[in-house]
Input
Amino acid sequence: MYDFTEEELQRYSRHILLKDVGVEGQEKINNAKVLVIGAGGLGSPVILYLAAAGIGHIGIIDGDVVDLSNLQRQIIHTTKDVNYSKALSAKEKVNAINPHVKVTVYQDFLRAENAMDIIKDYDFVVDGTDNFPVKFLINDACVKAGKPFSHGGILRFEGQTFTYVPGHSCYRCIFNAPPPKDSVPTCSQAGVLGAIAGMLGTIQAAETLKYFTGVGELLTDKLLIFNAKTMDFRKISVKRREKCPVCGENPTITELIDYEQAACDLQNH
Amino acid sequence: MAKIIVNDNSQEVTLPLTVNGLISLNGVEQPDMVSVQINGEFIERENFSTTEIKDGDTVDFLYFMGGGR
Ligand SMILES: [Zn+2]
Output
């Protein structure tokens, strides 16, 4: 049982007022441990909302420092944070928003060698990364560890997300393997409208909170795709694939893989 | 003429037509990187050249989106 103080009851009152959440739901949020991989465009809104919501323990992994060109969309960082560790910058904002949240910082990148060890301490993982090698690594590690995760990808004016829950379709069910290196333009070449990161990141944060509170239906076996130019949202039902190399009947991927840095988009439709 | 639905839009096509044929008909730039679902089932890439589109099929082309930071 989580013992709420007067201050906490007031802080979380708008959650507690929700019939579907209530004190019980807030208690689940406060007991939750979430790992956010990448404190960038997607990670910023995810971390901010999870901190505000009172997630008990947030892990933040990012080995990068803040660059001036990040500030257009990575809203957890400020101008004075330029050249400062993204993970530490994010931690400071979490502490300022909600001192009840325990934060663990990893000034590192997720790799095949450290992935399982880092992921094992958390109940839910959020993908806020910008490249295919890590997106596939997160998928494979979470499938192997039996951890749910929220996948997120953004490009130009578009975003795509789904929520993996063990036993359901994974990223490799949809996309078998990373695109070949240099086959597609890089993120920095392609560009992205800053607010798209917020649109997708807040969906990921909402999915995380839904997962812990059990409210509603997750984006499980569903790929949500939106285009901000038209504000068209599509939810495509996807099915677990028998021949999936990681969650299928005869998995061929038995060890985690560090793919070479690939580029970040394939979109032409 | 057969009526099919591609990414939520209806389309009229002439049969016979394979998945590969539909991909080129839709001008997909990098066909070796698109994922294809027909009526909610993924089509394995090695079957793109042999799987036939049927009247009334619902087809989804899914594309990689790798940004995030
Ligand atoms: Zn799978």
